[in-house]
Write a structure and sequence with these properties.
380 residues; alpha/beta; Rossmann fold; 60s Ribosomal Protein L30, Chain: A; 2 domains; 10 helices; globular
Length: 380
């Protein structure tokens, strides 16, 4: 039996989305920024967890923004079709109220789009919240309590959404966190994950396994409601995980613009015609298992070839590689081909940040980035 001991002052954040598109179950916190290099040293020294540190997000260059606009135009129909596929699956498997819970931040714009697709194509009653999940520490249980105890959504109505998978670390974190939460609270939230691109072969439901540049992966907060990466807060505090609102980037915010661009494609009949009625079938299950095995072999080969001590320093796929170059200290960007348009933005970022690029035509993904092992000498 769930006992309501919630902090009644908890208030969701809207970010820069429209009021009914998304509510972030996050608490805006004050933040002292440090450089990316200093952050990397603190993380690798073990003195601080990555979820306790933020570097100040800078405005993207004009050239990079133009590439984002180009990729949005190029891939918006494909992404809209993939959003439709996810919405169709959710419509098929979920009865009654649908409580979409996206994993902030990569899952946030996808959650907004899937909500719109469920309403547009299937006339479903949907609410969408975005909550924090942190590697090694788990999902924000205060946020889950808020949904179930304060908002009275049924645990069975909760559906988890993310943008993509890679090695499966966050997927496993989600499943373990939800199983523990269910046991401790006597409820049943389905520990299932829906994603656009399941490149790691670990999601329960997916629209594609293709490693393509989902345009929202190219930017940080400026395509995710101006909300920063989430910051850890102990559950005992009875507060949501923290975040910083990047108001200084307001003039570069394309969060709502991006949603409009993709959702405008819903009117195209080809979105439905080009999708299978229900492509979560036995072939999809085999594809997922095969991909998972291939991913495990790939990670093992990377560890051996590049003598990597920490598996978290391997970031396979276009989206993960983008995140690394934007907010970590990469040592190497590996691409399958420098002629491939899909990695054009990665090559631009690598040039800007003086990251070495290596070409490997046998690479499993279009791209893979490696985080640099930094010197921590003199770190107090």
């Amino acid at each position: 039996m769930v006992v309501d001991t919630m902090n009644s002052s908890l208030t969701p954040i809207l970010g820069s989305y429209e009021k009914n598109d998304c509510k972030f179950l996050l608490q805006e916190t004050k933040c002292e920024f440090i450089s990316i290099e200093e952050k990397e040293k603190l993380i690798q020294s073990g003195k601080r967890h990555y979820s306790e540190l933020l570097n100040k997000e800078l405005e993207p260059s004009d050239d990079y923004l133009n590439l984002f606009f180009h990729f949005t135009e190029k891939y918006k129909s494909k992404l809209a079709q993939h959003v439709f596929i996810l919405a169709e699956k959710i419509n098929h498997y979920q009865e009654g109220q649908i409580t979409l819970v996206s994993l902030a931040r990569a899952g946030t714009p996808i959650g907004v789009l899937v909500k719109k697709a469920l309403e547009y194509f299937f006339n479903r009653n949907v609410v969408h919240y975005s909550i924090s999940i942190i590697r090694d520490r788990g999902i924000d249980t205060v946020a889950l309590d808020y949904l179930i105890k304060m908002k009275s959504y049924t645990p069975e109505s909760i559906v988890f959404i993310d943008g993509w998978t890679a090695k499966g670390v966050i997927t496993n974190e989600l499943k373990n966190s939800i199983l523990t939460y269910n046991q401790e609270n006597g409820v049943y939230i389905k520990p299932l994950l829906y994603v656009i691109s399941d490149t790691g072969g670990v999601a329960d439901y997916f629209a594609s396994q293709e490693d393509y540049p989902i345009p929202s992966s190219m930017l940080n907060s400026t395509v995710s409601g101006l909300v920063s990466r989430t910051l850890w807060q102990e559950p005992e505090s009875q507060q949501f995980h923290g975040c910083y609102i990047n108001r200084h980037l307001k003039d570069f915010d394309y969060s709502q613009w991006f949603i409009v661009q993709i959702a405008s494609c819903f009117e195209d009949k080809e979105i439905i015609i080009g999708s299978k009625k229900d492509n979560y079938n036995i072939d999809a299950i085999y594809a997922r298992k095969s991909r998972q095995k291939t991913m495990e072999e790939f990670i093992s080969s990377m560890i051996k070839k590049y003598v990597i001590d920490d598996i978290n320093h391997i970031k396979p796929g276009i989206a993960e590689s983008t995140r690394v170059i934007l907010r970590r200290v990469p040592s190497l960007l590996i691409v399958r081909s420098i002629e491939c348009e899909k990695v054009k933005h990665l090559l631009m970022l690598a040039k800007e940040k003086k990251v070495k690029v290596e070409v490997d035509s046998s690479l499993l993904f279009e791209a893979c980035a490696l985080i640099k092992s930094v010197s921590i000498e003199g770190l107090e």
